[in-house]
């Protein structure tokens, strides 16, 4: 949806970003001693560009993810994908998945429902457009590089999620139950016809350090 914004609006909002400090991973890692989960994808590297296939400019399917090092005591896993650079007060939610078995080690490409694709049978929450789907990255043209933060959480027993949790509920329950966390960032930017002083690469933006 954001791709429909005129490029001039993207430029006008160039300095308006939710901020990497607002993603849930950062809050947990700053304020709590939790185990580190290794989260990765076979299709992009940390701080690397997301393949077009997974964006609104491509097929718009969700990317594959893999993980290991789930800590003992985890009852389930949950995943949150946020855009740290959306021109909104809080990071834009692209996907919420809850109640994954703690024994799971991967999500296949297209595991989430998307506009023209039927995904796997998963417990999915609402993205920021109130849909139970993968919201493909669609940064406004002229707004520069966006960081899409894929976060996985190992959860101990505790308060259950509702049938369709949103970001606020997800954060409250994860902060209560998290015993492990992992993070993977993919970037995406739409071509810009107007030269600006916006950061040109992900590295110039001060990337989140997962270590």
Explain what the structure shows:
Helices cover 12% and strands 26% of the residues. It has 211 residues and is an alpha+beta fold. The protein has one domain (2-205): Phosphatidylethanolamine-binding Protein (Alpha-Beta Complex). Strands 1, 3, 5, 6, 8, 9 and 10 form a seven-stranded mixed sheet that branches. It has a three-stranded antiparallel sheet with strand order 2-4-7, with no helix packed on it. The chain is globular.
Features:
single chain; 211 residues; alpha+beta; Phosphatidylethanolamine-binding Protein; seven-stranded mixed beta sheet; three-stranded antiparallel beta sheet; 3 helices; globular
Structure summary, number of beta strands: 10
Low-confidence runs of at least 5 consecutive residues: 195-204
CATH superfamily name?
Answer: PEBP-like
Number of domains: 1
The average pLDDT value, as a whole number, equals 88
CATH class: Alpha Beta
Shape field: globular
Order of helices and strands: HHEEEEEEEEEHE
CATH architecture tag: Alpha-Beta Complex
Largest sheet descriptor? 7 strands, mixed
- The first-to-last residue Cα distance is 33 Å
Counting helices, strands and paired strands, the structural category is alpha+beta
Share of β-strand residues: 25-35%
- Whole-number radius of gyration? 16 Å
Tell me the number of helical segments per DSSP (H or I, 4 or more residues long): 3
- Please name the CATH topology: Phosphatidylethanolamine-binding Protein
- The helix content is 10-25%
């Amino acid at each position: 949806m954001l791709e429909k914004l005129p490029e001039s609006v993207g430029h006008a909002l160039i300095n308006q970003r939710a901020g990497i400090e607002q993603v849930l991973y950062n809050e947990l890692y700053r304020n709590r001693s939790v185990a580190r989960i290794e989260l990765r994808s076979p299709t992009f590297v940390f701080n690397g560009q997301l393949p077009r296939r997974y964006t609104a400019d491509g097929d718009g399917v969700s990317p594959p993810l893999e993980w290991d090092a789930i800590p003992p005591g985890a009852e389930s896993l949950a995943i949150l994908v946020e855009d740290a650079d959306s021109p909104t007060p809080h990071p834009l939610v692209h996907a919420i998945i809850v109640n994954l078995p703690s024994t799971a080690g991967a999500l296949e490409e297209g595991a989430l429902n998307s506009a023209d694709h039927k995904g796997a049978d998963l417990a999915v929450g609402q993205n920021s457009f109130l849909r139970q789907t993968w919201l493909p990255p669609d940064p406004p043209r002229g707004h520069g590089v966006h960081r899409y933060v894929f976060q996985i959480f190992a959860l101990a027993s505790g308060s259950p999620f509702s049938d369709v949790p949103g970001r606020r509920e997800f954060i409250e329950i994860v902060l209560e139950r998290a015993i492990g966390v992992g993070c993977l960032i993919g970037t995406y930017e739409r071509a810009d016809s107007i030269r600006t002083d916006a950061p040109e690469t992900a590295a110039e933006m001060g990337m989140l350090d997962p270590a």
